[in-house]
Amino acid sequence: MRLRFILGEVVNGLRRNGTMALSVVLVTFVSLMFVGAAALTQMQIDQLKDDWYGKVEISIFLCPENSRNERCAEGAVTPEQEDAIRGVLEDGALAGLVQEVYYESREQAYDKFVANDDEGIWSSLTADQMQPSFRVKLSDPEQYQVVADATEGLPGVDVVRDQREIFSELFRFLNAATVVAAALAAVMLLAAMLLITTTIRLSALSRRKETQIMRMVGSSRSLIQMPFMLEGAVAATGGALLAVAGLFFGVRYLIEDWLRSSVTWVQYIGTQEVWSVAPWLLVIAVGLAAIASLVTLGRYTRA
Amino acid sequence: MRLRFILGEVVNGLRRNGTMALSVVLVTFVSLMFVGAAALTQMQIDQLKDDWYGKVEISIFLCPENSRNERCAEGAVTPEQEDAIRGVLEDGALAGLVQEVYYESREQAYDKFVANDDEGIWSSLTADQMQPSFRVKLSDPEQYQVVADATEGLPGVDVVRDQREIFSELFRFLNAATVVAAALAAVMLLAAMLLITTTIRLSALSRRKETQIMRMVGSSRSLIQMPFMLEGAVAATGGALLAVAGLFFGVRYLIEDWLRSSVTWVQYIGTQEVWSVAPWLLVIAVGLAAIASLVTLGRYTRA
Amino acid sequence: MIRLDNATKVYKRGARPALDSVSVEIERGDFVFLVGSSGSGKSTFLKLILREERPTGGDVYVAGRHLNKLSAWRVPHLRREIGAVFQDFRLLPNKTVYQNVAFALQVIGKSRHHIQSTVPEMLELVGLSGKERRMPHELSGGEQQRVAIARAFVNHPPILLCDEPTGNLDPGTSVGIMRLLDRINRTGTTVLMATHDDEIVDQMRKRVIELRGGQLVRDQDRGVYGLERV
Amino acid sequence: MIRLDNATKVYKRGARPALDSVSVEIERGDFVFLVGSSGSGKSTFLKLILREERPTGGDVYVAGRHLNKLSAWRVPHLRREIGAVFQDFRLLPNKTVYQNVAFALQVIGKSRHHIQSTVPEMLELVGLSGKERRMPHELSGGEQQRVAIARAFVNHPPILLCDEPTGNLDPGTSVGIMRLLDRINRTGTTVLMATHDDEIVDQMRKRVIELRGGQLVRDQDRGVYGLERV
Ligand SMILES: Nc1ncnc2c1ncn2[C@@H]1O[C@H](COP(=O)(O)OP(=O)(O)OP(=O)(O)O)[C@@H](O)[C@H]1O
Ligand SMILES: Nc1ncnc2c1ncn2[C@@H]1O[C@H](COP(=O)(O)OP(=O)(O)OP(=O)(O)O)[C@@H](O)[C@H]1O
Ligand SMILES: [Mg+2]
Ligand SMILES: [Mg+2]
């Protein structure tokens, strides 16, 4: 009896304040989209960091002959110098930071290069012109600078390069995107809360007569307030579900279908990340509605 | 007298429905931000196209010696072949499409290469190993494929490359961003219109007594309705101004300060583009308010 | 001044008419009581004259205008010739007595000068001098109704319509309101008052129009509330 | 049943008290008229009993409860022992007569079976059998007030409070309502009715409590409306 009554009142209220309820749904939808997008961007960043930082190595290029670099003025690297560098990396102070050291000879470098040059533009290159290098995998990729500093000045070293530099610009861009999304999310969440508050108030005003009669005949306060609270919660949850759907299709079409096939060298997040964000969005929606109810109901439906 | 009265009523109404008016401001703000962002992204794309498509050239690499490419099996390009290719480009069918042809010799290519190799990794490279090439500037950059097809098979041609390929992926991304921003803008504009409608309705409800008395004592319909219309318009305009401010600072800090200094090879839009978008945002805001007023007022403040 | 010719009002298709071909004429300066039990159509009668509702049949003429043909944007001009007073006073709770009366002049665009000279005069007429700055909730019911009458009459309209103006007042206070309406009537204003209050009707001995189920069943000069008393 | 001990109510700090140390006791089964001019505090008196307002001084006891100490979540239980009827009927316009009465039982959680047996019984008591499916606007004022009384009494509360229940009704219809209230009073229900209607008070000859400016100035068995008639 009571459940049917409450549900009937909720449906009634949503229908009566239709445009209002729809605005709540839309605004919650968009605001939670941003919350979700910010979260997903951060997850993508984490994933990229794990993925790339694990893979990237430090390349210590050794002096070739006839180099224009002053450091290599003494000519090509000698086997003794190579041993000394390997010693610094594998024993000495850096041993704790270095996970693996791999020597790439001129010939190996040449083979890799040719394999990447499909169109044969660099056909006239010879193995002699390639530089030998040490490829160093770090146990903690964040410690790049220490290793670079320790090796850069050694005799026989031309330049030290870290692939991580290429990505840092990208990460800065993605972080900025997260900040923008989060800021928009904050504004929109504020708007959503104001809206839910107003919806509840409007609903209470438009049903003043019912609630007045309910109070007079001695209906309990919870029964009077329940429909209003549920109304806000239903509208907010509707928005959250739309947001989850929006994120799902966004990730599905933009990332899984399009990016994954056009920019293939990146490890992307997928729809399963959306599912892990979804419960939080629902929690935020219901939380919003609950706060708005608490703020509003005391004043508008006193028992 | 009347003006003071109307303004007083507007202030009154905005204060009485404060949270509601604030939601209208916020939602209009965010929705117009998206409208503006979509417009600015398109302007950026246009600018990049103008800029890059005008600059980019087709590079026709000519056969070096000992190429691995089958097309160059006959050895390095001969001067006769070079003349033939130039003939195709400068006279013949392509003459109308080609704006300028520039021959880059091995030595010129080598000089450019060395200038870019700061760290001297490629020190052992010699000029002989570089490829000579024709750099072709098109009068209509969109006609790339025609020129590529016509030159690709000529004897002495190794590969034909168009720098435009590099950008097309970026343009696709930027276009997708415009679509996303426009879709969000549409949803938010819908929400904004619903909200303005509800605000006007709420305002009319909360001032039923005033309007009833005004009708009874014979005040004109326009005087009765004006305050409500102005209320919606003021709130929407507030949102539009915030949106303009948001876009302004967004462009100022994200583009002018940050991107312009970190990714320097791009020609960016600036704050003057925001000023050219701003009037349109205001027009949209006022238009929204006008439509919402028309929809609502007939029903809620009949004379 | 006011003429109804077979005026009929049906609110909802198929429903019993709220007013059923009523024909009646009220002259300038008349004082008329409109009586009848609840739902007999008194308020509907007044609404037709105010053009709050349009007749579904017949014709309504007020102050020389044929209301059936009056276009919507001319309605305000009609309303300025009619003052209206209701049972529930309808004062603005956040305005003072003075502001409530002045409001009626402001919104029809009178000059500040005109307002400042007219309002105190009107408040004196209804006996509220000295209470200009009170808020409505600081007044007794009778005083609130006086403010409402002052607001309705401040523009000196030729017609004053009252829908149960004493319905919320006790008998003593009601008599005071009736004296005020009588005084206004003596200035030449046509007063039409719907009421349930048999004592007042019996005491004043004015023209009485009785409705029953929407039909005019009596139109009597110097009449009483009911022919058969309960 | 109802006892006020020096009950005082001041709505706004510094304002004149709406009710000024009123002490009165009403026994089970009494029929009491509460009279007084507009603003004398009648509605405030009833609101204290309903615990819609809390006294600023003194004590209020209703149905064995000390209302000053009643916690908010117990108020609904108090209200189930009191039926309330108002001048403006307060019916839900989009519910039928039957649904309006049933509503009062639904929201306090009565079973459907109980509702289906009680509501028709109650509608018969107030004389509305056969009109269960009408909407409020299809009823006369007197009939609407009967629906309101049915709703207030359907739970058989020991107390019935009426705030000017005949204020919007014509004299003939008012008499019908008074007969109904008298019948309900005869079942042992305490009836407390605030009114302006001197004819009814004079005719019924019940206990009369008179307020003036918030103070109790008369408490008379088998009294009349006013000692000095206007
Ligand atoms: N807006 C409306 N829509 C539908 N029906 C209406 C409307 N207003 C009035 N009615 C119906 O028209 C009839 C006459 O109503 P009216 O208000 O004119 O009566 P009345 O004589 O003023 O009654 P009371 O003494 O209760 O004020 C009633 O049956 C009522 O239900
Ligand atoms: N909610 C309130 N806030 C402030 N003052 C109030 C409130 N309700 C009533 N009053 C004041 O309390 C006094 C008594 O009001 P009350 O409504 O009890 O009178 P009443 O006897 O019912 O009058 P009426 O016959 O007009 O219904 C009045 O002066 C009134 O202005
Ligand atoms: Mg009426
Ligand atoms: Mg009262």
Q: Describe the oligomeric state of these chains in a short phrase.
A: heterotetramer
Strand order of the largest sheet of chain A: 2-3-1-4
Largest interface: A-B, 51 and 51 residues
Lateral strand order in the biggest sheet of chain C: 6-7-8-3-9-10
Largest sheet descriptor of chain C: 6 strands, mixed
- Tell me the fraction of residues in β-strands of chain A, as a range: 5-15%
Ligands in the structure?
A: adenosine-5'-triphosphate, magnesium ion
> Which residues of chain A sit in consecutive blocks of at least 5 with pLDDT less than 50?
none
Q: Order of helices and strands of chain A, N to C?
A: HHEHEHEHEHHHH
Helix content of chain C: 25-40%
The radius of gyration computed from the alpha-carbon positions of chain C, rounded to a whole number of angstroms, is 18 Å
Mean pLDDT, all residues of chain C: 92
Shape of chain A: elongated
Helicity range of chain A: 55-70%
How many separate helices of chain A?
A: 9
The major β-sheet of chain A equals: 4 strands, antiparallel
What characteristic shape of chain C results from the CA principal axes? globular
Percentage beta strand of chain C: 15-25%
Protein structure class of chain A: alpha+beta
User: Radius of gyration of chain A from the CA trace?
Assistant: 31 Å
